[in-house]
Design a protein that fits this description.
By secondary structure, the protein is mainly beta. It contains 5 helices and 55 strands. The strands form 11 sheets. The chain has a 9-stranded mixed β-sheet with strand order 36-44-38-42-45-47-53-50-51, with no helix packed on it. The chain has an 8-stranded mixed β-sheet with strand order 6-3-8-10-16-13-14-12, with no helix packed on it. The relative contact order is 0.05. The N terminus and C terminus are likely disordered.
């Protein structure tokens, strides 16, 4: 058997006004669907381009490993479209082709959309497929409810008459497995900005069943209660169909079954009946209005059979109900001793969420509807269901007298396990004293404010408020807010879901400082790759009248911050004005300042660390609230410097290459000239040595003509002789050129190779040449140019 993972990729290609272009890639065997959930007018999804473009306002599919470019024509496609990823798991009579493995994409663009991960499953008749939830457990909820961890599971059965919604579920419950006949689906819905939790549910071949589905529950030891809903709730139970629930009951426990919120159908054939099956016992068959028998003999199967209903009247209710199953042991009283005396200012409160006569709570043997413990006490709880109990803690830290540790670690108190429910909420009241300030810092890293587009997906959140209840904001981990300063009494509340692991380390560290000028000050260190959203206190309700808030934003060197003001709401002021100001640290001038009666800019770029200050007026109506998006980007000045540096470097390289080329060319020319030596001929024609005869004259061939010749090479022997006899002196001026009428000074024609001569022959030839030149000169003392 091998495993299949639900994975896909979604890449943002380009984004522009009213449209976004996406590239979808479906892995083999997977299908990706884009759906227009609300059928918003003007919004559509298109594939292709030009004449081949195909658009739809409903949905678009990408099948089996194909890659499709999709264009979403909408101003905010994430608010209109959702993405569904579908895979298939097929089961034979012996095994299934894979398991349900939850994995999500790492792309930030994917998280901007609501996503549904669906597995379609089929089984070979007559058997069913089984999904195992033992590791996490599931709890059924009504279709209108939401899960604490924002992961909602849906189970469906596919029948020839149509699809049946078996139920909607959350994690952490008593449901341990599900059997579906023939075919069905299992899906998990995840909202935008929520990362899918990695998880795995095993899929196996189940036993043969005759109902549309069988849900198995494992009841815990002690007192417990579970509620189940009829299939297709709040619509009617399918006509003439069967549903089963199997209950695994701990030893020595009794189970009470009730049908609540019951609506019965008009039956044409048969009757609605409920059956109780237990090993070794006769099956009990009852009506839904009958008193259901107490089950105290271990595990049992409850089967519900619907009749063939009369559905002609439009207002026929059909069959709907809530099935409540309560389990308890004969000795269900729990005793618990609590001692809070070692923690100063700590109190514990225990109450029921819904009053019930079965639950009896006592403190020091005195019956109470609500219990508050401030020091030490003996508690007892009889038939109190954990899901109906709430346990909260409050600690007062009063530093008005100046006697308190600084800093103070806000720690979750250690409580005994015998309490009827886990601790769901802890509140710390911090009183710095008159003119004092409370400073909060997270020891586990910077905080982020929970806002649209930046929601906290953590199971643990922190509410910060003034002691009088004025909200400041909700925060969680992995943000950019380093410190929070509040100039008043503060309330810090830690919330955790029922299945969350309560942190044992300090939630926050609190210290007490002197008075500050603003009511709230936040210190923010934005991350380079992640925009940070911050909002005015009490967003979206609006800031407290005449209050002020500042954000001290640190911008790294060679970076600049881009500010975008979104969701800005301005009041009509009865006294004073609202104000938004931006000022760089150390700068005497403000970079930006706007009141409520002035047109505000939506974007601003600041090149250094800065202060962002906001103040509220006394509103006559409306409220002052705004969300600011802070993003870091490379400084434009630095970018210009980089560009100029690159250009300068390229220019230097070009000049160096040009110089090298010129030097090489010059050397080649010089080398070529060094081999071309002319010999002076007193007869009036210059030719190269080695020729058998004189070269062609200028009239015969002018292809090799020299523009100049060094006179010293031609007349060296004359100058030497003239100097010896005293004719030529230092005033000799060399010949500077020739005209077209003059004979060529040098022939570049190459002759045949020189004949081999002995050194004595060479010397004889040289002497002869000197004698001939000397006899032909005559009495002329000045040389004629050109000869």
């Amino acid at each position: 058997m091998f495993q299949l993972c639900m994975t896909f990729s979604l890449c943002l290609i380009v984004s522009f006004l009213w449209a976004q272009k996406l590239t979808l890639t479906a892995e083999p065997g997977a299908t990706i669907n884009i759906r227009n959930n609300n059928q918003v007018k003007g919004c559509k999804v298109c594939t292709g381009s030009g004449n081949t473009q195909r658009c739809s306002i409903e949905s678009m599919n990408s099948f089996n490993g194909s890659t499709v470019s999709v264009e979403l024509e909408c101003s905010r496609p994430q608010d209109v479209f959702s993405i569904e990823i579908v895979r298939r798991i097929n089961c034979t009579t012996k095994s299934c082709s894979g398991h349900i493995i939850q994995t999500d994409s790492n792309s930030i663009d994917v998280l901007r959309f609501n996503r549904t991960f669906t597995w379609n499953l089929t089984a070979a008749a007559p058997k069913a497929f089984q999904i195992d939830f033992t590791k996490t457990g599931l709890k059924q909820i009504s279709p209108s409810e939401k899960c604490p961890d924002r992961h909602t599971y849906t189970l469906q059965a596919f029948q020839s008459t149509g699809n049946v919604a078996v139920g909607k579920y959350c994690r952490s419950g008593t449901i341990s497995s599900a059997l579906i006949l023939k075919s069905g689906s299992f899906s998990v819905d995840v909202p935008a900005e929520q990362k899918l939790q990695n998880d795995k549910f095993d899929v196996t071949v189940g036993e043969k069943i005759k109902s549309l589905a069988r849900i198995s529950l494992t009841l815990p030891k002690g007192t417990s209660s579970s509620e189940l809903l009829s299939p297709d709730y709040p619509e009617s139970f399918p006509d003439d169909d069967i549903m089963e629930w199997y209950f695994q009951v701990p030893d020595k426990h009794r189970v009470d079954v009730q049908f609540l919120n019951l609506t019965q159908p008009d039956c044409v054939k048969k009757e609605v009946a409920v059956e109780y099956h237990q090993k070794g016992r006769v099956t009990s068959v009852l009506g839904l209005n009958d008193t259901q028998p107490l089950q105290n003999q271990g595990d049992f199967l409850l089967t519900l059979r619907n009749c063939e209903m009369e559905r002609a009247p439009a207002d026929s209710p059909g069959l709907t109900f809530t099935l409540k199953v309560s389990a308890s042991s004969p000795a269900s009283t729990v005793s618990c001793k609590v001692d809070l005396s070692k923690t100063e200012g700590l109190s514990l409160n225990i109450s029921t969420l819904t009053p019930t006569p079965d639950c009896v709570m006592k403190i020091n043997s005195v019956k109470k509807d609500n219990i508050t413990v401030t020091s030490s006490a003996d508690l007892s709880f009889e038939d109190c269901l954990p899901e109906n109990m709430e346990v909260t803690a409050t600690q007062l830290i009063d530093c008005s007298s100046g006697k308190c540790p600084d800093p103070v670690s806000l720690l979750v108190p250690l409580l005994p396990f015998c309490l009827p429910a886990p601790l769901s909420r802890v509140t710390w009241i911090l009183r710095p004293g008159r003119h004092g300030t409370v400073k909060l810092i997270s020891p586990t890293g910077p905080l982020k404010q929970s806002l649209p587009g930046q929601l906290c997906d953590d199971s643990v959140t922190i509410d910060v408020a003034e002691e009088n209840g004025t909200t400041i904001g909700t925060f969680c981990r992995d943000g950019a807010i380093q410190t929070v300063r509040i100039h008043t009494n503060v309330s810090v509340t830690l919330w955790s879901s029922m299945n969350a692991k309560t942190p044992r380390s300090a939630v926050l560290n609190a210290s007490f400082e002197n008075e500050i000028t603003e009511r709230y000050i936040f210190t923010v260190f934005p991350k380079r790759d992640t925009p940070e959203l911050v909002a005015t206190p009490a967003w979206p309700a609006g800031m407290k009248a005449s209050s002020t808030v500042s954000w001290i934003v640190s911008v790294p060197p060679k970076m600049e911050a881009q500010l975008i003001f979104t969701k800005l709401s301005q009041p009509k002021c009865s006294n004073g004005h609202t104000d938004i100001r931006v000022q760089r640290m150390g700068s005497p001038e403000e970079d930006y300042s706007r009141r409520e009666d002035e047109m505000a800019k939506s974007e601003l770029t600041v090149s250094e660390s800065f202060y962002l200050n906001m103040s509220n007026c006394s509103p006559e109506r409306g409220n002052f609230s705004v969300i600011t998006k802070i993003s870091l980007q490379k400084s434009k000045d630095l970018l210009l410097i980089n560009i100029l540096s690159v250009v300068a470097a390229l220019l230097v390289i070009f000049v160096m290459v040009l110089v090298v080329v010129c030097v090489v060319i010059r050397k080649k020319k010089k080398k070529k000239l060094n081999h071309e030596v002319s010999v002076y001929n007193p007869n009036g024609i210059n030719f190269l040595p080695g020729y058998n005869g004189p070269p062609k004259t200028h009239e015969d061939d002018d292809a090799h003509v020299y523009t100049s010749i060094d006179d010293t090479l031609v007349y060296t022997h004359l100058l030497k002789k003239g100097a010896d006899i005293g004719i030529y002196g230092e005033t000799y001026q060399p010949f500077t050129g020739h005209t077209d009428s003059q004979k060529p000074l040098l022939s570049s024609q190459k002759g045949p190779p020189l004949p081999n001569r002995s050194p004595s022959q060479v010397q004889t030839l040289m002497d002869q040449s000197e004698d001939e030149q000397s006899s032909n000169l005559g009495p002329r003392l000045e040389p004629e140019g050109g000869n």
